[in-house]
Automatic annotation (TrEMBL):
A Pfam match: peroxidase
Organism, as annotated: Trapa natans (Water chestnut)
GO molecular function, one term: L-ascorbate peroxidase activity
Catalytic activity: L-ascorbate + H2O2 = L-dehydroascorbate + 2 H2O
Protein name (record): L-ascorbate peroxidase
EC number(s) given by UniProt: 1.11.1.11
Amino acid sequence: MAASLRGASYLPPSASTASVRSSLPRFPSSVKCSRLTPPCIPQLFFQRVKGRTSPPVLNISYSGIASPICASSVPEQLRSAKEDIKDLLRTTFSHPILVRLGWHDAGTYNKNIEEWPKRGGANGSLRFEIELKHAANAGLVNALKLLEPIKDKYSELTYADLFQLASATAVEEAGGPKIPMKYGRVDVSGPEECPEEGRLPDAGPPSPADHLRDVFYRMGLSDKEIVALSGAHTLGRARLERSGWGKPETKYTKDGPGAPGGQSWTVKWLKFDNSYFKDIKERRDEDLLVLPTDAILFEDPSFKVYAEKYAENQEAFFRDYAEAHAKLSNLGAKFDPPEGLVIDDGPAKAAPEKFEAAKYSYQKRELSDTMKQKIRAEYEAVGGSPDKPLQSNYFLDIMIVIGVLAILTSLLGNGN
């Protein structure tokens, strides 16, 4: 994920720590519902700060929503919310923290627990104070603050979907791959349904490779997916005062954008590309951050295969990252409808019908192979193809030709 859970906390440019402490999201006491059914990660999920085991205490007093929730999101509102998130990203440069938000809501999943929501995962539980105060989630209240106006505007949108929509949109808007997302996630209804603390990764465990595997295997993720998701650290910065990791500032972060300071993993830390892997491999710039869970990607034999590949081939990284991010975003989720909703391409469209000459036979007589070939040749001569429908201005002409040929075939057949 773009930001570490605990190893790197990100404060959006538009908010200061002081303002966050005094002005937390004021989520509505109820949610209007309408039931319409028509990542990292390693660093994104840190639990402990180097040298301490609990996050800075925030004077907060909100408990999220314990009243009725929506069973599932409405496609039209999902599409509109995505456009609003794009606008938000253009003005706040909050890509890293929004990626981290989606990862942390999903990253509590335990594949060994079948019951929902005890199994954790992408269920919107991170909106409740009890989970927000987990050490790994320090600073994520800022992401909720940013998304509050969008949630208020689109009441028929679940938190679980909003978190994942924001995360995937942030990756795409930063120049990353398009994530094959689906929506329709159901929210948990109260803080008693939040997972226990301790399910997210640390930044500097004694045995980084074993720790990453313990955490991500529990989620059902593979070595390839661990490395691919780690590549999201191409986005974001770590802040020493919040995480215990990173420099107070570097030549890449002292001027922002947004609130200055912190240490980034990459030079262009708001651009999603494969520079994370290149920079870790080269280790030539002391102003770039390399955590123990980053360095291990080029030291562990299995991880190294993928890390080397992604350092050399950005296309391969984008492909594997998109698949891993989509998988992560679905972990533990309960969907309504069960198959989920796809919004990116608008209403579902029927695939173009393939051309089959046999469909143009006269009455019940099947055309000969020779006649089928002639019809196909005529069809393709005016711009058609087996996989592409004809342009509308040719349709009448080709139908006339086919009709005439069919009649001639019938007459010739009757004459025998």
